């Protein structure tokens, strides 16, 4: 099987392969022999069906499957040999098929953008020397109170930081389609929903509706581009809720797992200890973002539309799985805030950079380190030990643990090689800098 690759652009590539007729016929014959052992047809005993009968009945389906298997097998071998990482779904086209000669197949795909990382020893990073003072403790308490806030239904006008539930329907020539996003719940000013939509919602009340015009982006994955179209949507405000912060009492202490501390002062002292225990994690995150930002300053990493689209899809599935109509044909991504899209794009860029560093340094994850990370994650999330075995077999949990282990290994390399400038900083300022990154 002959294989050749053509570069269309920095990220777009085409692989063309020829599969001979002899190979196809050989694999079809093998598949028919295998089917003959298990196939059941009225009038014949199991394993005794004549091969010609199976061929007449099933050959077109078998030939198609054999051809797909041969293409996939050869393509996987080719990309592994050439260290190629395709993105997303492949576009496979049978260019020319002749029973006597064989077939020519063309596969169009995109790859991760290539970047050049300068020697890490030339990178200068601020190493935070963090102090924790009473203001930092109060800052943490306010964040915890906000995270554990309750919500009460309101008939007042919508303000920033209110929680709103809406339905979204597209309109064309004032005819409402069946596609609908139902019971979408979000917080105003949380940089999740489009700023333009939030501006329209603020000042209105529940049980009201309005028409919202949006520059809707239709994604063309094949051309790696967007097509803009102005569409109107009917926005129906179902419910408005106001945030109520919890009091600093025993119930609140219990929610944040400080059960044995009945007074605010004792709770603050314990919280201060907890902050100090987590400083290593926050310092690592701060160093990580500095590294990524410096590499991005030196390297423009163009992210393919398809990769951004997939990242948005993952975000929507994890964040709005209970709010979005599972069967809706309406694409929700154009309603997202630009800052959120930028953050998701930044996450992709971060992964590409870290994969490059992993590859350059030939980092291998130690099994003991991976096991310790798994145990720490399970403890942090308060998973009973009797359930640990089940989690350790979960693919998503394993991948998350591997990602953390890889990141830790990279950060260790950075700590050893990069130039550091000490930076005195409070915990509150450190958290705010991380949030802005």
TrEMBL record:
GO cellular component: cytoplasm
A Pfam family annotated for this UniProt entry: Trigger_N
Subcellular location: Cytoplasm
Matches recorded under InterPro entries: PPIase_dom_sf, Trig_fac, Trigger_fac_C, Trigger_fac_C_sf, Trigger_fac_ribosome-bd_bac, Trigger_fac_ribosome-bd_sf, Trigger_fact/SurA_dom_sf
Name of the top EC class for this enzyme: isomerase
UniProt GO MF annotations: peptidyl-prolyl cis-trans isomerase activity
Trigger factor C-terminal domain boundaries: 265-408
EC number: 5.2.1.8
GO biological process, alphabetically ordered: cell division; protein folding; protein transport
Keywords: Cell cycle, Cell division, Chaperone, Isomerase, Rotamase
Catalytic activity, reaction form: [protein]-peptidylproline (omega=180) = [protein]-peptidylproline (omega=0)
Annotated ranges, domain Trigger factor ribosome-binding bacterial: 1-144
Family, as annotated: Belongs to the FKBP-type PPIase family. Tig subfamily.
NCBIfam families attached to this UniProt entry: tig
Name under which the protein is recorded: Trigger factor
